[in-house]
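Quick one - inputs below.
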Amino acid sequence: MTVVDTETGRPANPTATAWPVAEQQHMLRMMIRIRRFEERLAALFKRGELPGFVHLYLGEEAVAVGVCSALRADDRITSTHRGHGHVIAKGASTDRMMAELFGRVDGYCRGKGGSMHIVDFSLGIMGTNGIVGGGIPIGTGSAWGDKHLGRDNVTVVFFGDGASNQGVFFESMNLAAIWKLPVIFVCENNGYTEWTPTEKLTAGRIVDRGSPMGIPGDLVDGNDVVAVREATDKAVARARTGQGPTLIEARTYRWHGHNEGEEAFAGAYRPQQEQDDWRGRDPIAAYGHALVQAGVITQPEWDEIDLAETAAVEASVVFAQQSPLPDPEEALDHLFATTSTGDLR
Amino acid sequence: MTVVDTETGRPANPTATAWPVAEQQHMLRMMIRIRRFEERLAALFKRGELPGFVHLYLGEEAVAVGVCSALRADDRITSTHRGHGHVIAKGASTDRMMAELFGRVDGYCRGKGGSMHIVDFSLGIMGTNGIVGGGIPIGTGSAWGDKHLGRDNVTVVFFGDGASNQGVFFESMNLAAIWKLPVIFVCENNGYTEWTPTEKLTAGRIVDRGSPMGIPGDLVDGNDVVAVREATDKAVARARTGQGPTLIEARTYRWHGHNEGEEAFAGAYRPQQEQDDWRGRDPIAAYGHALVQAGVITQPEWDEIDLAETAAVEASVVFAQQSPLPDPEEALDHLFATTSTGDLR
Amino acid sequence: MTMTAQSSTSEPTATQRPTYFVNAMKEGLHAAMSEDDRVVVIGEDVDRSVIGATRGLIDDFGPMRVRNTPISEATFVGACVGAAAAGLRPVVDLMVGSFFYVAMDQLADQAAKLRYMSGGQVALPIVYFAATGPSGSGAAQHSENLHPMLMNVAGLKIVMPSTPYDAKGLMISAIRDPNPVVYLQDFVLGGTKSHVPEDAYAIPLGVGDVKKPGTDVTVVAIGATVPKALRVAKALEKEGISVEVIDPRTLVPLDEDLILSSVARTGRLVVTDSARLTCSAASEIVAMVAQSGFGTLKAAPQRVAWENVPVPFSPPLEKRVLVQDDDIRRAILATLA
Amino acid sequence: MTMTAQSSTSEPTATQRPTYFVNAMKEGLHAAMSEDDRVVVIGEDVDRSVIGATRGLIDDFGPMRVRNTPISEATFVGACVGAAAAGLRPVVDLMVGSFFYVAMDQLADQAAKLRYMSGGQVALPIVYFAATGPSGSGAAQHSENLHPMLMNVAGLKIVMPSTPYDAKGLMISAIRDPNPVVYLQDFVLGGTKSHVPEDAYAIPLGVGDVKKPGTDVTVVAIGATVPKALRVAKALEKEGISVEVIDPRTLVPLDEDLILSSVARTGRLVVTDSARLTCSAASEIVAMVAQSGFGTLKAAPQRVAWENVPVPFSPPLEKRVLVQDDDIRRAILATLA
Ligand SMILES: Cc1ncc(C[n+]2csc(CCOP(=O)(O)OP(=O)(O)O)c2C)c(N)n1
Ligand SMILES: Cc1ncc(C[n+]2csc(CCOP(=O)(O)OP(=O)(O)O)c2C)c(N)n1
Ligand SMILES: [Mg+2]
Ligand SMILES: [Mg+2]
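Output:
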């Protein structure tokens, strides 16, 4: 069947429910934004321009965008050490992200956080996290807070296959189940926990881990943004209507190393064939071509988006580089609040 | 069918596989020993003769005895805050237990441990535990140690329904599953986590919590010592033959409060009818009568066992009361070992 | 400092009644829950309350604001971070201080750090309280006092009252405070009784209290050691030795000025802590004075704390490990020798 | 003490080669695994090794003795208690010091206490090691140094070497020790290099080392602050100030006599710690000397440690929080003012 977009009269993506053209183009744009942002980081890291270490999201873009495109601006997420994609998809400014990654004063956290602690509460971004599994209870509590305060917001908790072996994952599922919390547990299973294949560390299927607690599990192709989006739409509907949590396992793959620069010491732990196969399943190319096929977008429009996003990332690098380093004395600020309303200067 | 005991020619317990009469009588005796021990503690506590606080096992005797009667002397257990039954069933001396509960020098831990830290490594009793869930990783590690060292010992991890919401329970099941460890997770579901009904805190059935990891679950009547024993026999066979862990959920009920003396402040949190029903399902009376029925034991023999065990517990109290309190300076001993072979004096 | 003065010197007024420590905590909780309906109390069996500080609150505030949790400390301690960011003001009853260990990452690495890491984007008004320290043969896993550890974690305020009066006023301030606050009720104080005003009052965090003025020796006492120090001080009074007893009441922030100015007058310092000696609050305070008040010290400062072993079960062993009146007395006399 | 002397003063011999700190740790691990096949190493990705101390061990000892774990710190830290009781000698790579928080109950409440609680029935030979402390913009959750907290937990020995030589000898002693030992490799030291003997040798736990003799001021330095203190000491030498630099090397047990006797000679003390100031090892050592060596102190003892905030990401912020050479220098001069 072909769904026709009412605004434009153009056929909408046949693989999807009838989303407006603008929305489908936006999903493509966001995946491209993440892609270009991460590619730029890889280059910057190689040139030694980034402090600390970074974990890139390249290849997994469809998960973040499929999930976050199903959320409202006032919904919330907690993220991981591999979180740039999540926060971009949730609407973060790449300027302020890049500035944070450079440790500059215009960064989201004024340089205090870095890659693993990017926060923008105004966008519902409750933080990437340096502790594997660390964000799971926090996101569960965010859902508890919203429910208690009578809001219909939902919170998405992103975590990896490795994090699915942390006790807080099960504890949080149990709490979410008995309190029927509006939380969605999204496991990004990219096949590896650092350098070890997931199946060597993780018994059974992650998607099944909530079923003993009555939490529905949905296993989706994490490289198919439409599949991820549809699964999330279902989970969001459940959460918003008080039916409680859902567990989504999205199978995907990271194109780069666990962290940039690992080649120096990790050795070859992933078969080349496996890597090639997954790169052959590029979520952006797949969705872009589907949209062109469906006439939702033209190739020139797609190229246009890519050029614009590439330029925007370049501008973010300039923004970051022009932003000053924080005054060392700021290191002593922000430990304790004096009023309950935050005091972001 | 009637199984005849080859030694005695008497018909064995029809409800059970053909265990020797002596063994069936021993199971009854051990349940009675626990019962009389705990009843005595209740009286001692009321009279203020016990330091600290105690959690009694009354009513749950069939679980400890059903499980531990399936173990070898060199198998191991980790236990809980409600552990007297477990350690008695594993063969602990009631003299040294009672002395420990009195804080005397002849106690298992020379008075350092008390009710929640009763240990006898020579009997494979790796400790009751004051931290809910605390013994679960320790028992899992004990199974890892045995397997690594090429032994065929198994370790039983006892824990409660409340402990089933601690993250380490899931983490340990996962580790046991991927390493195929000879460990048996025995959940004693007595319907309450302190004073809160289990179902208000615990999503779904505990027995199912291992299935996503491929761990078989066995739900048994925790007041039927034969059922518990048979489930444990199966689990032990799996573990000893390298087939990995099993999860057993035994449904039972504690006759007394969460801890002795709670009446003063807990209020009435369990329906009287519920309490009466469960007391009507006394695991000792049920098994004793079954054995009499089956001609495995006569009423006089049963009475004889009871008298003997009651007397033995009395003797334990005398033993404890006659044991001196430890020299205060001993408080500074036993922090660090000087040789790897322990230094129990 | 009026409030401070009042707490130590004021005579019971008409509106004051003799009140148990745990009930004073409850009065503080009740007042804070009444003034702000975003305040919620969670924890294991908080409806009936094992220790007592939350007992009966459910009758006035219902099961949604007084809510039982599963035994999942790491998760509900961390959940409060998200809930606070979402607009709640969670108060958590951890029941027993030792159980903080189970939730240490969520407490020390998440709750304590999120605001700082975010560059001050959010305030996290959370109170984590517990009955803590030895309770009389509670044995090693129910007798820990974690304030020394938690003092080393930047981002947590730490409150440790020693009287029912302080317990109520500090509970109210802790709940009103926009930061994560750890509130420790030294177990053995729970059953102590003294006069407490009926209506709500706040004792500011970071303001210590002179529990007994004196001129010869300054004794800084923490938690359960405060009544011990006061007993010893009164006894020494008869022997002509004038001891000043200071209770910091909050360990983070610490009222360093009050301590330093007292030592500047007395020239002698004893610090007694309700914790193991190594890296204790006693060590911190002695080091602080040694560094910042060295010139005022006339004698070696003395630390009186637990032996460096877990707390054993048997009464004579436990007694040997914990701080006794005589230990404090000997330390005071040592500074005068 | 010959070994001690040797470690600081001996010239490289024929059998010594310049060796990186992490490789010295690996040599210690290799030697211990070779001499006792009950020694097993577990942790996340220990086969390939993120930090490096276990890299390649799997080639010699196989996947059963060098075994990858799931990300379940609480469980595998606690599993070692049961495994050790069963007869293994587990060595755990926690990777990063901050991750101890996740396993704190199993470490501080179980591993550290089981032997004591049982009245000495069992010995638990376990080593928990990690790369710890700031690594250069690792940010708040990858830069913690937990030795101050763990020093307050009775039942854990704590090792914190500052040179490749000590790293190897102390690793061997830690593994041979029949008790739980926490072995902390201050991150930034991992890439430092010095001469290390090829064959196995043990440096006893509890024996500090004079890294540089001196007569005017005693500087006790811990972990990553040792090379800083030595740099400052050498610079001050030119200005006619003779600084003695002591590295305790193990914090539990602590070589108090070495420190006290040095202060008895110099009369001046600076303690610099690779940790936040409050309740730090620096506070503990200053307090210990103030109490036990007061009469020998000619000036106020100085503590030099991190600011009391989480470790921030941005380089200038991180630099402001951590200990810099100048901080140590100023503190030394302050004791001479
Ligand atoms: C508690 C904790 N343990 C270990 C680490 C180190 N670490 C960082 S990422 C990672 C692997 C996480 O794997 P997964 O959850 O699958 O996420 P992925 O990196 O594959 O996206 C590990 C072990 C950590 N940051 N926190
Ligand atoms: C980590 C931890 N949290 C809380 C407690 C307090 N506590 C002791 S027993 C108990 C209830 C345990 O319930 P369950 O596991 O069902 O065992 P039961 O008492 O019913 O035998 C609680 C909450 C504890 N000892 N340890
Ligand atoms: Mg992964
Ligand atoms: Mg129960």
